[in-house]
Amino acid sequence: MKKKLIIALAVLLLLISGCSTSNNNEESQEQPSSSPDKQETPVDNEETETDKAQQEEKITAPKETLQKKDEGKNVTSLQNALREIGYKLSEDGVYEEATTWAITDLQLQFEKLQATGVYNKATQNVLSSLLEDAETDFQPGKALPKQAETTMTSHGTPVLSNPYDQLAIVNKEFALPADYVPEDLVTPNVRFPFTEDLPKKQMRQVAADHLEELFATADEAGLDLYAQSGFRSYDRQDAIFASNAAEHGEEAANNFSARPGESEHQTGLAMDITSPEVNFQLNTDFGETDEGKWVEEHAAEYGFIIRYPKGKETITQYQYEPWHLRYVGEETAKEIMKEGITLEEYFAE
């Protein structure tokens, strides 16, 4: 009897032990594994977020056309892009002299770009390529030193370090280097009152293209415009000023004739225009002709301004010259002509 009782108790204990093991196995299957190989991957999520952040922070060249005096986030983006390829610039969002210098230096290093200091579509394409090519041997500052070799003229006028700048002020306070000759001079396809192939027929490419458009529209309006005098070298200006000074005295001559280095004609961005009605002369009577009135009204549409307007003689320090056109680009020209101001006043604002 005792043996039977002992056997029964042993069987009962075995049954209880089996149930407990079974329950533990089921609970173990329901709980997630603590094995590192089977963990959900928050690391992958972190990597994805990092990749996204890097993509968002990727420096790119802005698509907008920008130039000196512009401000805002697009200018900051441009400055960031220029810094990325090696230029040492601030990121203040102001398109000032340093940014203009960097863009000009960049443009001078690529033949397909016009060196104007204005950031445009063609410049954007080149900048984008440089940003994408980490192996490029591009050298910032290689083409245009930050400072001119000669910093003062013989008359004590500061010399511009960036003579290529489309918006450079050239006057009695800022002069061009004596050896500066634009590399992109061409002869615009417009009328001249002479047939000789002289340097004064030439302008820089960007200005020549727009002068052709201005003349074409004037022709459609039935007007009779002629181009008289464009590019003038430092040496040529020196001879002209010396002749005028000998005849009128240096002080008087400087009211209507620029000293060498101080003439806009050396920029290649200026052209004196005239008409048969004033016998192809360059005098104030041109402003009263149909051609002169039309040019004053429409020049800005083609990027030109009347550089020495009437009533602004104390600012420009030159007499009224309705015949003297200066290319500054459409945006700037429209603002200057609309406000009735000079280039000096435009940059003083």
Lateral strand order in the biggest sheet? 3-4-6-5
Instruction: Give the C-alpha Rg.
Output: 36 Å
Report the span from N to C terminus. Answer: 119 Å
Name of the top-level CATH class of one domain: Alpha Beta
Major pleated sheet:
4 strands, antiparallel
- Residue windows where pLDDT falls under 50 for at least 5 positions: 1-16, 19-41
**Structural class determined from secondary elements:** alpha+beta
Q: Summarize model confidence as the mean pLDDT.
A: 88
How many strand units?
Answer: 6
Helix content: 40-55%
The CATH architecture classification of one domain is: 2-Layer Sandwich
Number of helices: 12
CATH topology of one domain: Muramoyl-pentapeptide Carboxypeptidase, domain 2
List keywords for this structure.
single chain, 349 residues, Muramoyl-pentapeptide Carboxypeptidase, domain 1, Muramoyl-pentapeptide Carboxypeptidase, domain 2, globular
Describe this structure in words.
The structure is a single chain. A four-stranded antiparallel β-sheet has the order 3-4-6-5. Helix content is 41%, strand content 7%. It is built from twelve helices and six strands. By secondary structure, it is an alpha+beta fold.
Quick recap:
The protein is of the alpha+beta class and 349 residues long. It has helices spanning 2-30, 42-56, 73-84, 97-108, 121-132, 205-220, 234-248, 250-253, 290-298, 313-316, 330-339, 343-348, and strands spanning 185-186, 203-204, 226-229, 270-274, 304-308, 321-327. Among the domains are: 60-132, Muramoyl-pentapeptide Carboxypeptidase, domain 1, CATH 1.10.101.10; 185-231 and 268-348, Muramoyl-pentapeptide Carboxypeptidase, domain 2, CATH 3.30.1380.
